[in-house]
Amino acid sequence: MRPMRPERPVSPSRRTVLAATATAGAATVATGTATAAEASNASTRPPATAQPPTPELRALLREIDPARIEATVRRLVSFGTRHTLSTQDDPVRGIGAARDWILGEMRAYAATSGGRMTAELQSYVQEPAPRIPTATRITNIVATLRGSVTPERVYVVSGHYDSRVTDVMDATSDSPGADDDASGVAVAMELARVMARRRPAATIVFAAVAGEEQGLYGAAHMAARFKAAGTDVQGMFTNDIVGASRADDGTKDPYTIRLFAEGVPTSETPEQAATRRSVGGENDSPSRQLARFVRDTADNPATGMRVRVVYRRDRYRRGGDHIPFLEQGYAAARFTEPAEDFAHQHQDVRVEDGKQYGDLPEFCDFPFTARVARVNAAALWTLAQAPGAPRSARILTAALTNSTELVWERGAEPDLAGYEVVWRETTASEWTHVIPVGDVTSHEVDLSKDNVFFGVRAVNRRGLKSPVTFPSPQP
Fold first, then answer.
1. Core-most of 243, 362, 413, 440, by most CB within 10 Å?
2. What value does the mean pLDDT of the chain take?
3. Residue 332 to residue 1: CA distance in whole angstroms
4. What sign does the CA torsion over 27, 29, 34, 40 have?
C-alpha cells in the first residue's frame, strides 16, 4: 500500500474561523472559570511561530561559560571606577584602562575567527553638554563578525562599560558597576568569544559603549554612524543590568529576563501615525516583532529561561542604549533582570545601618547572567542564520472584500525557500496561526483584514524563519 502524501496546507476558511470564534464565545459564557484557566494555559504555551533550537545552536549555547562571565565582571570592577569623566591614560584605573583591556580581549577573540572578525575603537570628542562639563573623548569598543552570505544585513548586541555612584558627576570615587553594567558587557564579550569561530550568514556586531550614564552618548554616536553609512541594522539588543536575580525584598527569580520593547515607534512620522491610527498596529512595531522573535527562539529549555516581554520602551524614569537606535528608526529592545535591588546600583559603596550599599560583584548571580547570554545568543544566532524580515509587505485595500490579499518583495538570500503568512485576533498578543504559502510574493487569505492582524515571514531551506513583518495598507 502506497503511503499517503501529506495534504498541502491551505488557508483557513472565513466560515470555519467565524464558527470557531462563535463556539469559543459560547464556551466562555457557559464555562466561566474553566475558560479562564484555558486562557491562562494558552498564555504559557509557546507561540505558533516558535522555532525549536537547532543542533548547531544547542552546541553554541553549551559553550557559554558562567566562570568566564564572572571573570570579566570582576576584571572590569578591578579598574576602580569606569566613570566616563574618569582618567583615560592611567594603565590600571579609570575608564581608559577598562577600554584598553576590553579592546585587547576582543582582539584576542578576533584572532580565532580566520579573519572574519575585527575589533576597533570608535571614538569621538563630545563637546560640553548635559552631564559633560568639558570636552570629553567617548570611546566605544566594536567587534564586527562579518556575515558569509548576506554581510550587509547587521545585528547589534551591546552593554555599557562606564559606571557611576550616587552623584552622577563623581568621577573619582570607587564605582564598581558590577551589575550596571559590567554584566551587560560580559554578555556581549562572551557572545563575541563563542561566535568568533563560527560563520553567521549575516553580520553581528558586539559592542561595549561608554557615556551611557551621562546620557547615552556612546550608543547615540554608534547608531548615528550606522545611519549615516546606510547600514541595514535589522535588530539591536542592549543588555543593561542583567547581573542579579535577587530583588530588594530578598526574593529571587533566576529563570526570568525582562525584554522591554516599544509599541508606537520612537521614529514614527506624522504620516505613519495617521496610518496606524486608521488600521491599528500599536502592538506591531518592528521592535515588538523583534521581541516576539526572541520569545520564539529563546524562551525554551535550551536557554533555561523565560523571556518576559514588557510592552514599553523602558522602565519609569530610566533609559538605555537601545533608545538612540530607536531614534534612528532601527528595531531595538532592552534586556534587564526581572526585579532590581536599587541599593546595588547608582550608589556610593558604604555600609549604612548594617546594610551594604554599592554595585559590588558579590551581589551578582553569574549563572543567571550566563543564561541571559544564552537568550541573547539564541535570538542573535537565529537572526543571523535565518533570512531577513520581508520588505515592502502590504495589504491591498483598493477593493472592499471579505478576504485579504497580501504582497511583499522577494528577498535576495540564496537559500530562501519561501514565505509564511501569520495571523491572530486583534486582541491576542502573540501570533496564533501560521500558513505556509511557498516561494511566492503574494497570497490571498479567506479572512477579513478588518477582523484580524496579519504578518509575513521568510523561511530558508534549513527551516529557519525571519521575524514577522507587519504589512501596511496599499490603496
1. 243
2. 92
3. 54
4. positive
